[in-house]
Amino acid sequence: MLLALTSCGRVKNYAIDADLKTHFNYNVGTYWIYKDSASGRVDSFAVFYNQYTPAGVSTADQHTADDINIGIEEFNTTGLLDSTQWSWYLVSNIIEIDRYVIANGTDYNIQYYSFVSYPFQTGEVGSSIIVPNAYSNGLVTNIFPSYSVNGQAFSQVAEIYFNDSTSVPPYHADWFYLSQDTGIIKMRLYGQADSPQKVWELQRWHIVK
């Protein structure tokens, strides 16, 4: 009876999926350089921290989950003043993203919950153990065995669509192309924080895991 009571009092903890960590746990030293095909602007995106927190997240079912938070800073190589920070969260088998944008003197916080699950599956990412009723879950519309950007072929690429319809017109309606080996290889960003619209295409990169 004592063992049963002890067991009932335990709080379940969700570990981070090993395959998710293998493919997406980017460490400091990782960077991606993109060119906006619409304007010709070139920006670099670099990991500036990677923090692991055991049992650091309270889940929707009153349990806990391990968490890796990866901070990515966008640097405007053309000297423009707008800036963006991305926070990636690896939880269970889910990637969730916060995007903080300062554009034209206005702050925007864009949330991609849940961004994608791994292994990739077509359809809405749907309920996760973290945010079961997220207002803007990602929709995986295609999974490409191979997808080319600037003549470079990338394997196992998920095409992910987000449309936040909580405001009219939509606050953002964005497309992402995510490679399991390289990260985001293309972004089409549409919304108040991305005026004029941006189409980032990967030019070169360096991955540290």
What is the helix/strand order?
Answer: HEHEEEEEEEEEEEE
Largest pleated sheet: 13 strands, mixed
CATH topology: YmcC-like fold
Distance between the termini: 46 Å
- Mean of residue pLDDT? 85
The low-confidence parts are 1-7
How helix-rich are the residues, as a percent range? under 10%
- Return the CATH architecture: Beta Barrel
Keywords:
single chain; mainly beta; 13-stranded mixed beta sheet; 13 strands; globular
Present the secondary structure layout:
Blueprint (H helix, E strand, L loop, with lengths): L1 H7 L4 E2 L3 H7 L6 E6 L5 E17 L5 E13 L6 E9 L2 E10 L2 E12 L5 E2 L14 E11 L2 E13 L7 E8 L3 E7 L8 E9 L3
Parallel strand pairs: 1-4
Antiparallel strand pairs: 2-3, 2-13, 3-4, 4-5, 5-6, 6-7, 8-9, 9-10, 10-11, 11-12, 12-13
Task: Summarize the structure in words.
This protein has one domain (11-206): YmcC-like fold (Beta Barrel). The model is unreliable at 1-7 (pLDDT under 50). The relative contact order is 0.17. The protein has helices at residues 2-8, 18-24; strands at residues 13-14, 31-36, 42-58, 64-76, 83-91, 94-103, 106-117, 123-124, 139-149, 152-164, 172-179, 183-189, 198-206. It is mostly beta strands and 209 residues long. Strands 1, 2, 3, 4, 5, 6, 7, 8, 9, 10, 11, 12 and 13 form a 13-stranded mixed sheet that branches.
